[in-house]
Design a protein that fits this description.
single chain, about 550 residues, Immunoglobulin-like, 4 domains, 9-stranded antiparallel β-sheet, 2 helices, 43 strands, flat
Length: about 550
Amino acid sequence: MKQSNNLMKHGKKACCLLLCSLLVFACKIENDIPYPTVEGNIESFAVEGQCSAPDGSGNSATINTSNRTVTLYVDDTVDLTQLRITRFTVSQGVIIVPDASACINAQRFPTTGFEAPADTDDTRVNFTNPVTFTLQTYQDYKWTVSVTQIIERNIDVRGQISAVVDVENHLAIIYVSTDEDLSNIQVNAMDLGGASGTVSPDPTTVHDFTSPQTFYVSRGWEEVYNEWTVYMYHSENNTTATAEVFPRTTSATLNGNIQSGKTPVIEYKESNAAAWNTLPSAQVNVNGTRYTAEFSGLTGNTTYQYRISIDGTATTEQTFTTAPATPLTNGSFDYWSSEAANNGTLWYPWESGGSSFWDTGNRGATTIANSNSVPTEETSTGNGQAALLQTKWLVMKLAAGNLFTGDFALDGTHGILTLGREFSAFPSSLRFHCKYTTSTINRVTDRLSHMRGQNDTCHVYVALTTEKVNVSTRNEIDFDPKGSYVIAYGEFLSGENVSGTERNGYRQIDVPLEYYRNNVTPRYLVIVCSSSKYGNLFTGGEGSTLYLDEMELIYE
């Protein structure tokens, strides 16, 4: 019995030691496990008075996730010392920590992202210098936001040939036609302080510029007046009419300078044509010493000549060549190839041995199930093949049928889409033939739980961009139609069944492209098609089915 008791005591002691060792080991494991890396990114950013960049790259903020910088421009109606942020969205779960020294009221600045500030928020920030925002996840990510103010100083004097404005030294030099009397000059506008600034005395009441004139100028948000000196001289060339042209595929824009009060007559023709066409006056807009002319109805990949006449005197003939009307690769969806996968057939939207222009998320789907973006012989023409995109529940996640220009890669069980194929033309619309059967949304994430029970929505969008765009289901990073990289955009959405009178019930759909910028050449074409709009967020209705056929780019 005594031996038995000793064994029990030793056994208890051993158990206690083992338990303590396990606890210590468990603590060590917990302390050694690193925090997951969750990047804190700014997804959109906007402020009051935001305007286009000087290079015409649009009025959206330029967001660089590599350098963690945001760059944007504002007009002269706002005060940089207390500029209000109107939109500040970030990746999911991020806490925003602003620079307290730059905030007007740091305690009331929102700590989470917002599409629009609440009434109680104070999002005013002093942006006279770049401002740092820290985005906190498991790590800290410092972002720098830079705001540049654009102050346009419009000068319009009767007979004006050109003007030079020196902001740093507060002076302006204006050249006018030799026909103008410097002692009796008519000033139509002289916005030395910008559109919202103040100039004293009123320049329109000052007529004698035989000697330099002094004006006192303040910007719209300042009470301080700066002394400016304005010089007026005769120009030796009274018929100056400089211009530069930006050609697209079926249109072109001509911008130029001209003597104030004059109207240019613009003629153009194909380079091998004999007769000249005169551009209608309705397509020529003159504003002071600047004019803009719009050519339309042109032919792609064609060289044109143009000339500008002022008071009957024509300038030297110049030429420009329009961009080609590039067709859409495999827009018929006739070409597919396949291979055996672990859980079915892996389908590719390109022919065997060919190169990929389109791609799908099938490589992600076939890790646990069969492809859900496949070819079908149920076409709109009765010939070839079409694309069939289906939304399915694949054991663990919802997967929407999808088709896009770009490449797909797997990140664990998540997908990374690199959107965009090289492209430099200017289509007016995207045309395709489709039919769609919607279903009730029965799979949702916490973020979109309010959509349960609604009709699912198919989504087809087209964009011309200056860069490729990465979309990730892991971080819920989506394509931003208003991103600084977007030149033009158009989309088709339907939460109802779509059918038509074409063969097999197809309907023709035309999606016009809205151009945000007309003076930038695209580098990439992005087209994305999905049987469930929010499929990348694992939200949609099982059974939603989208057929697509005969897709093409229209140039009008």
